[in-house]
Write a structure and sequence with these properties.
By secondary structure, the protein is of the alpha+beta class. 23% of the residues lie in helices and 36% in strands.
Length: 240
């Protein structure tokens, strides 16, 4: 018991030391039991360099251990920003993603090319979404996951179309999931460019889940902002 208390106190002191070491603002606008999306707003005199990225990584790792998060992201904004309270076009300096699903070590990716809040979310691939549905251990986490802003990558577009209100939709599906995205906006593409999307394309998008139907395949309807479109290769993965 004493060893457990000592370890817990050490962890809290480490977190406090990290907070004192840097002047940036650290907060968690989105959080569930096992997932989180943090935001970091730099101080006026801070430089987003390698040393600062290391300190941010250490703090998020510590926070993940304290909160027992399997995965989290931290969006980094410049001084004066209102962060995730703004629009998806808000300037961002990068995003840190850390995951650990019981592998024994953290998987860490720091993407310094993420330039807007449209790229702030919990990162998963379309294949990983399928694995969440198929895996008995991960499946109970799916409800939590869908409550957070998600960046879903490599979405294989299988159909496109319009609803009666003129909204443009892109749909991806495999044997586990149907992902129906209302492409409402994009920082990187005009409305005309978005609507050239075809079933030969793949898509990276920020999504906000609006409706879920838990049949099989699982149906997910979401509002989405396109971050990257690739129409060079047909995506055979959608049939798997």
């Amino acid at each position: 018991m004493l060893k457990t208390c000592a370890a817990f106190i050490t962890t809290l002191l480490s977190a406090a030391a990290l907070n004192c070491a840097q002047a940036y603002q650290f907060s968690t606008p989105y959080q569930s039991e096992h997932f989180a999306l943090h935001q970091i707003i730099l101080d006026e005199h801070e430089t987003f360099d390698e040393e600062l990225r290391y300190e941010i990584t250490r703090q998020v790792q510590t926070q993940n251990r304290i909160s027992k998060h399997y995965q989290s992201s931290a969006a980094v904004f410049p001084y004066g920003s209102v962060g995730l309270a703004s629009t998806i076009s808000e300037k961002m300096l990068g995003v840190l993603s850390i995951s650990n699903y019981g592998t024994g070590s953290d998987q860490i990716v720091f993407n310094s090319s993420a330039s807007s809040a449209s790229q702030a979310g919990l990162y998963i691939s379309f294949t990983m979404l399928r694995d969440f549905i198929d895996n008995k251990v991960l499946n109970p986490l799916l409800g939590e996951l869908l409550r957070l802003p998600l960046i879903i990558t490599d979405i294989p577009v299988s159909a496109v179309g319009y609803d009666q209100a003129g909204n443009f939709y892109a749909t991806a599906r495999n044997k586990a999931v149907i992902l129906d995205l209302r492409l409402a906006d994009s920082v990187y593409y005009s409305k005309q460019e978005l609507r050239t999307l075809s079933p030969n394309c793949s898509l990276d998008a920020l999504i906000f889940t609006e409706r879920v139907m838990r049949d099989l395949p699982l149906f997910i309807s979401a509002r989405a902002a396109a971050n990257h479109i690739n129409c060079n290769d047909s995506k055979e993965e959608s049939a798997k």
